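Input sequence (198 aa), recorded before submission:
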Amino acid sequence: MPRLLLIVGCFALIISVLSLYLPLLNLFDLASVEWMSQHRIAVFNQITTAFSALGGMPFVLFFTTLWCLHLAWYKKYSEIVFISIGIFGSISIVWLLKFTFTRPRPPEMYHLVASYGSSFPSAHSCYAAALACLMILVYRQHTHHKLIALFAFIWMLCMGISRVYVGVHFPTDVLSGWSISLIWIALLYLITIKFSKA
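Predicted structure, C-alpha cell format:
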C-alpha cells in the first residue's frame, strides 16, 4: 500500500508541476473553475463552504490532537509520533512550496470563500490527503480497514473538489496538494518501518 501511494503521488506531482508550464493545462484549469462556478447551487455552496472551514489548518490540528489523545489512551505512542510528524511535515512542505511557486489564484470573481497564500499547491487538499493516508496506514490491521480507507478517500476527494467549486484553486493545485501528502506520508511510513525493524 505505501509503495502504491508513493507511485501515484509521484505521477500526480509530475502532472501538476507540468501544468505550471504548459498552456493547454492552464486552459483546462481555468475552464474547470469557470464551469464549476456556472453550475453552483445553494446546497452545494453551503456544503463546500463548510468543507473550507473543516479542511483548514486550525480544524486539522484540532482533529489530529483529539486523534492522538485517543491513541494515547491505548498507549500507542509510535502511532502518535508517526501522525504528528506526518501532519506537521505536510503543513511545512505545502507552505514552503506555496512561497516557492507563488502561483496566482483563480480570478476573485469566482471565489465563494476567503483565501490566503498562493494557489499552488492547495493546502486544504494536502491536509485532507495527509489525514487520509495516515488513517489508511495507521489502521492497516483494523477489522474495518476497507471502510476506513473508503471514508478517508471520499474525504480527500470531496475536499479537493470543493476547493475548485468555491473558486479558490485550480484542479492541478488540488492534484499537487494530494500528491505532496501521498509522497510524504508514504516515504515517512517506509522509513518508520525500516527503522523499527533495525
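Checked by second reader. The mean pLDDT is 91.
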